[in-house]
Amino acid sequence: MTKHDIQAIDAVVNIWTPETHAIRPNRDAFFGGKMKVKDDTLAGITHEEMLRRMDAAGIERAFLIASKVGPLLHKSSYHIPYEMVAEAVERHPDRFHGLAGLDPTEGMDGVRQLERAVKDHGFIGAHFYPHWFELAPDHAKWYPFYAKCVELDVPVQLQVGQSMLYDPKHRLRSVGRPISLDAVACDFPELKLIGIHVGIPWTDEMIAMAWKHPNVYIGTDAHSPKYWPEAFVKYIDSFGQDKVIFGTDFPVLDFERTRDEIEALGLRPVPKRKLLRDNVLRIYGLNEDGSRAAKR
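The structure corresponding to this sequence follows.
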């Protein structure tokens, strides 16, 4: 039995099997050093082991990212094939959902890939890293993908806040300022935009965007809850309680430790449940059993 009273839904999880680990350039120094990922996780874990850890943390489901990390022509970049995530979802449909990574250099071919991921493989949303392409979220090259997300009625999540030095030989600028979502939300009021990674160090700016725009939300992943800015914790527990969703960015954050740290924040019961479960179901249009809700 889990010690947690709410079965959470983790909206930001990297598929992390030995097979996907083999696709990535060697980032052990970054993940094992800067991010402090433990040795028993670093080289990849099976889906069954991930599910065991989710169960121990009271996490019912995870959104697995078929990430596109930079343009493929660059040796520091990699793409996780959509098929790898689709296979995981097919094997565990009650536990996993798929998110389609985006690469703006792929143009309309990438847009068509996104459409097939949603229509053919049942993916429930899109995901991208602005800094890996050094293209801010309001750059024109992202706009065809935003339009397709509106057409498909799926949310898109993207990293906001600073980028890290993932590869010392390939240093990337932090182009994901939360304020850059302002133009996107104005141009696409029907698009559900989720700024993940809390927005640190511009968390107040991210809160301002979510407060201004009905279609802008915040993901809590990649930063340990015990280090969240005080203003962000108060936002979750008060006027922002409908605007924030839970995530870990596993393996960056450990499932169980993250749940324990959220419990230690002392959130009120209703905002805590919204953060851990209710908001993500609503934003992604899912029923309690994980099926897609009927469109109105």
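The beta strands are 8-14, 59-66, 68-69, 78-79, 96-101, 125-128, 156-159, 193-196, 216-219, 244-245.
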